[in-house]
TrEMBL record:
This is Cytidylate kinase. It catalyses: dCMP + ATP = dCDP + ADP; CMP + ATP = CDP + ADP. GO terms for biological process: nucleobase-containing small molecule interconversion; pyrimidine nucleotide metabolic process. Its EC number is 2.7.4.25. It comes from the Bacteria.
Amino acid sequence: METAARTAPAAVIVAIDGPAGTGKSSTSKAVAAKLGLGYLDTGAQYRAITWWMVTNGIDVEDAVAVADVAGKPTIVSGTDPAAPTITVDGTDVSAPIRTQEVTSRVSAVSAVPEVRSVITELQRTIAAEAPRGIVVEGRDIGTTVLPDADVKIFLTASPEVRAARRSGELKGKEAADLAATQAALAKRDALDSGRETSPLAKADDAVEVDTSELTLDQVIECVVTLVEEKRTAA
Ligand code: DC
């Protein structure tokens, strides 16, 4: 008789990085659901700590003030890909972290090294505790948070495609202004790529997938195949 240890697949860690509007979240959730893995949106964690700073009147442009309180909020992420959750000190913040107010401040908060070390530690704990493995999406997962991930993907897309996709997620007046969306994305990219501590970057051993001309299903299929190949080879 085969033992459970021989039949259960080993936990697999999948890191998916890239800028906003490349399909990271939709891809990561779908891949996790298909493969029975957990799902962690690390951008939501940076948004959650930013929401807490704004709500508590911290000047987010003051890196010292932000660093001083970085360890105060308790952020909890639920990792079911069908219904991911995020709370700060027990409050559900899944809606307020998507407001323009938080989006425009998150790059400043996430550039503060003390914030990154608190959030990185949280991410590593969540990944280590995922029983069957996890898909973790972000900016620095393959380079800094989980450099030993089994599969590393770096998603890209042209600025025009990214702005159009992001615009489709926004509502009303915000959605109509494609040029403003493209400019806002470019500004956030520059801040996220240019910061000193673990910037947005492709790991040397990551597979780069340009999603500009691909449907979401094609991107999902591509990542699922890469994970399955890795599992077969292991
Ligand atoms: O994925 P997102 O757009 O929700 O991420 C919001 C911000 O969080 C992004 O502009 C930069 C920051 N972020 C980060 O610095 N590191 C990560 N691993 C994920 C997000």
